[in-house]
Amino acid sequence: MNRKEMSRIAHAEHPIKSPLDDDSVGRLLERGLPRGNERVLDLGCGGGEWLLRALATRPHLHAEGVDISEDALAQAAAAAIDLGVQDRLVLHHRKAEDFVSAEPFDAVLSFGAAHAFGGLLPTLAAARRHLAPNGHVLLGEGFWDRPPSREAIDMLGNFTDLATTVERVVADGWTPVDAHVSTRRELDDYEWACWGSLAAWALDHPADPDSSRVLETAATRRWEWLRAYRDTWGFVSLVLRRTSDRA
């Protein structure tokens, strides 16, 4: 079983691939899409969960998603047909960092795709290239809620604390107009759902040659979370505007 398939199974019971519940997703979209008729771009859209949610609740919205996974884009396309929004969704199979559009977008989203750009500030630079004047960027980023262990840094990356994260964003020319810091419940629900879904798949498919490896992976990831980073790692979702857009 390849990594993409394992990720699909892990997120089966938590369709937003970030530690956010439905209410938090809805609130972030309300703040980032205030008119309801925006053109929206998701850089690294995966299965299109954010775009599909926005399209289903805003009949005048149009969206485009970019991702390197054909399987994820096929999933997004099928879901769009089920929701009846396929005429307002365009999907691009390419690297997010290589995407070019002739027209700017009113909102640019990027959750879980910072690795594709090389970190927080390069992700914001990519979003800036596509953003129309007075547009919004919705971005998710991890941070250290308290000093992490070396083991946690090796697992998740060299994040900063929340205050420093926001300071870096502001120094890069952005103004936060809203944000959401994931609660302990959201963080825990996400981890339990991911590793529980993997474990359940392995238990339900004992004859599959990948069953033992998937069960072991679920156990390892659950142990890493509980022992190495549960008490130190946090997640912030930012709604940003360019500071230079002010009148």
UniProtKB/TrEMBL annotation:
<feature type="region of interest" description="Disordered">
    <location>
        <begin position="1"/>
        <end position="23"/>
    </location>
</feature>
<dbReference type="InterPro" id="IPR013217">
    <property type="entry name" value="Methyltransf_12"/>
</dbReference>
<protein>
    <submittedName>
        <fullName>SAM-dependent methyltransferase</fullName>
        <ecNumber>2.1.1.-</ecNumber>
    </submittedName>
</protein>
<dbReference type="GO" id="GO:0032259">
    <property type="term" value="P:methylation"/>
</dbReference>
<dbReference type="Pfam" id="PF08242">
    <property type="entry name" value="Methyltransf_12"/>
</dbReference>
<keyword id="KW-0489">Methyltransferase</keyword>
<feature type="domain" description="Methyltransferase type 12">
    <location>
        <begin position="41"/>
        <end position="137"/>
    </location>
</feature>
<keyword id="KW-0808">Transferase</keyword>
<dbReference type="GO" id="GO:0008168">
    <property type="term" value="F:methyltransferase activity"/>
</dbReference>
<dbReference type="InterPro" id="IPR029063">
    <property type="entry name" value="SAM-dependent_MTases_sf"/>
</dbReference>
